[in-house]
Design goal:
Layout: E1 5-13, E2 16-21, E3 24-30, H1 32-42, E4 47-51, H2 63-70, E5 77-80, H3 86-95, E6 99-102, H4 104-108, H5 111-120, E7 125-134, E8 137-142, E9 147-152, H6 153-162, E10 167-172, H7 184-193, E11 198-201, H8 207-216, E12 221-224, H9 226-229, H10 235-244
Parallel strand pairs: 1-4, 1-12, 4-5, 5-6, 6-7, 7-10, 10-11, 11-12
Antiparallel strand pairs: 1-2, 2-3, 7-8, 8-9
Helix pairs in contact: 1-2, 2-3
């Protein structure tokens, strides 16, 4: 049986980890280097680092900070924010990233997905999709959730897979930071619709939310931020809880 992955996420703005609700109302959550080191020690399966202001402010990743975080890790490390070219990816890999995640740039230029998959292999390319319900359709947003697009979640996810992405990271903007549980319905559909791994993001508030996610969908991994950053859920405790309830974890 494939084990489920638990992935803390560092949303970084101006060199500090932050966490908000529905992509707004950001508050400081600590030093990304120290948090990354802590999560690796606690048994995180992977770590995701997203420079959430890079695209919005049209600037590049803080490569030096990525390098500093990577120096303390012995787990897979995914980095995103402001990536728009092969050279951007090369810089991040040189700094210690194992995978990269693209979002706004992929929507603006879908051929970038093909290009990166061809250059580096699909296993390195994660496409992040931020979406929320608009009317009765899950609609894709870019630029840190500030720009609505014409893209719809399920058709875009399928195109992303067909273009060579190795993984989808789906964040429900409606659930982000609310601690009300993951967006089960779209996650269940995505995980059945796609043949590549799906990572769920947005809404974790208690251990039972992770359990429901893995029981009710076929997602491969759960990503969370605030509940870990502010000590509401400890990673070792979460993994023990899941294992006792029949979920295979590492």
């Amino acid at each position: 049986m494939l084990t489920k992955r638990i992935i803390p996420c560092l949303d970084v703005k101006d060199g500090r980890t932050v966490k908000g609700t529905n992509f707004t109302q950001l508050r400081d959550a600590g030093d990304p280097v120290e948090l990354g080191r802590l999560y690796a020690q606690q048994g995180a399966d992977e770590l995701v680092y997203l420079d959430i202001s890079a695209t919005q402010e049209a600037r590049q990743n803080f490569t030096s900070l990525v390098r500093e975080v990577a120096r303390h890790l012995d787990i897979p490390f995914t980095v995103g924010g402001g990536i728009g070219s092969v050279s951007d990816v090369e810089s991040l890999l040189e700094a210690g990233a194992d995978k990269v995640t693209i979002n706004s740039a992929a929507v603006a230029n879908p051929d970038l997905i093909d290009e990166l998959a061809k250059q580096f292999g699909s296993q390195l390319v994660v496409v992040a999709v931020d979406a929320r319900l608009v009317g009765n359709q899950w609609t894709v947003f870019t630029h840190g959730g500030t720009r609505q697009t014409e893209r719809k979640l399920f058709s875009w996810a399928k195109e992303v897979q067909d273009r060579g992405a190795g993984e989808i990271l789906f964040t429900s903007m409606d659930h982000d930071g609310t601690k009300s549980g993951y967006a089960i319905d779209p996650l269940n559909k995505l995980s059945q619709w796609l043949s590549i791994p799906v990572v769920a993001s947005g809404g974790a508030g208690k251990r039972e939310d992770f359990l429901s996610l893995f029981r009710l969908t076929q997602v491969d991994a759960a990503l969370a931020a605030g509940v870990f950053h502010f000590g509401e859920i400890a990673l070792p405790t979460l993994k023990t809880f899941l294992a006792k309830n029949g979920i295979a974890v590492r």
